[in-house]
Amino acid sequence: MNRERIDLLVTGASEVLTCAADAPDLVGRITDGGVAIDAGRIVAVGDISGYVADRVVDAAGGVVLPGFVDAHTHLVFGGSRIDEYAAAVAGVDPPDDVPVGIMGTVTETRRYSTADLISQAEPRVIEMLDHGTTTVEAKSGYGLSDATERKLLQAAAELHRRLPADIVSTYLGAHAYPSDVEPSRYVEQIIDFIPEVAEMDLAVFCDVYCDRGFFSLEETHRILKAGRDAGLWPKIHLDAYSHTDAAAIAIELEAASVDHLNFTPVHELELLADAGIVGVYMPALEFSVAHPQPFEPRVAMGVGMELALATDMCPGCWTSSMQFTIVLACRLGGMSVAQAVRAATYGAARSLKLDGEIGSLIPGARADLVLLDVVRYEEIAYRLARNAVTTVIKGGVVVREQAA
Ligand SMILES: [Zn+2]
Questions:
Q1: Which of 20, 362, 381, 396 could be disulfide-bonded to 367 (CB atoms 3.0-4.6 Å)?
Q2: Is the pTM above the cut of 0.90?
Q3: 58 and 172 part of one domain
């Protein structure tokens, strides 16, 4: 038999998960299959007997699945809020002179140069890669001035160039009102800045924090419409702390995702699901802030909503691990392990409009995959607080490999 020569074969897996959109078991589990890769793309999954390769990676009886996609992070910021967190867990007020909340981080972030912001965010991306994340959505939003928002977006672009993880940027000038500009004036600033963000390719998405005390329905609509007109797809921080009615805006403007959803009533979840909009669930954020009303993924999935998982890496929720996020989604949110793994791969890719390209191991997709030293994929949610990743392949290139 004449076998086709390609770049890379992954063999010796106990399970390969395709996480294909239409997988009946949600994760497309194949036993005793492999993955064939050429020119950075997947050419075959399952039966790979028709191929020989220059390089063979042995999964050593472990699980192979798509690289994790982290659907919602605030990756680039300055400093930390360790004092606020330590006070919160002790149930006391933080000292007066430490950074607290979004504005505390904005004040810190504005002090740093772009190079400083890159060097602070770079270890976070490296840690994400080490934990099997190959694509990271990253929002600006700790600058709240054109100059600092530009620096945050430029820092994310530099990290994308420098590291093997893909960084997909979102402009979130509408994260909060800055304390030094009148709110209505700041909304105009955001709208005026959007064309530059689009022309300079600084972001793919435009996001607004719509909630009580944050941006109003009218402001949310204006900002997202301006973004869409400039070619930036809308996303919304929706109903995290109150019910806003902004679900209607997400549907009208065809948002790529709606994120948080803690106070979204079930009939609105159903309308969002019918519109094909992905819901982004961030159980680590809810855990980290002890959220008073956790999102209920079973209710959303019950009305047909596709969910994405995300770490929400930010100064208020410091985790880079999608495996930890899966643990919490299962144990605290009541997702099955299959539902959570699908949300951490296919669902998250869809929230970035990248399904078919990443998040699934299917012929033609980018060869972003991880190898785990577990025999069954359910162990991701079962063996707590451990990193099961042994190998990370990004675009067909081995970028992380544990010494044998
Ligand atoms: Zn957020």
A1: 396
A2: yes
A3: no
**How many domains, in total, are found in the chain?**
2
Render each residue's pLDDT in the chain as its tens digit; 404 residues: 689 999 999 999 999 999 999 999 999 999 989 999 999 999 999 999 999 999 999 999 999 999 999 999 999 999 999 999 999 999 999 999 999 999 999 999 999 999 999 999 999 999 999 999 999 999 999 999 999 999 999 999 999 999 999 999 999 999 999 999 999 999 999 999 999 999 999 999 999 999 999 999 999 999 999 999 999 999 999 999 999 999 999 999 999 999 999 999 999 999 999 999 999 999 999 999 999 999 999 999 999 999 999 999 999 999 999 999 999 999 999 999 999 999 999 999 999 999 999 999 999 999 999 999 999 999 999 999 999 999 999 999 999 998 65
C-alpha 257 – ligand 1 centre gap (Å): 12
How far, in Å, is the centroid of ligand 1 from the Cα of 116? 22
Contact 331/41 with Cβ under 8 angstroms?
no
The 3-state secondary structure of 377-393 reads: CCHHHHCCCCCCEEEEE
Residues 204 and 235 sit within 8 Å (Cβ to Cβ): no
Distance 317 CA to ligand 1 centre (A): 10
Tell me the CA–centroid distance for residue 286 and ligand 1, in Å: 12
Q: Are residues 339 and 256 in the same domain?
A: yes
Q: Does one domain contain both 339 and 280?
A: yes
Considering the domain architecture, whether residues 167 and 285 belong to the same structural domain is answered as yes
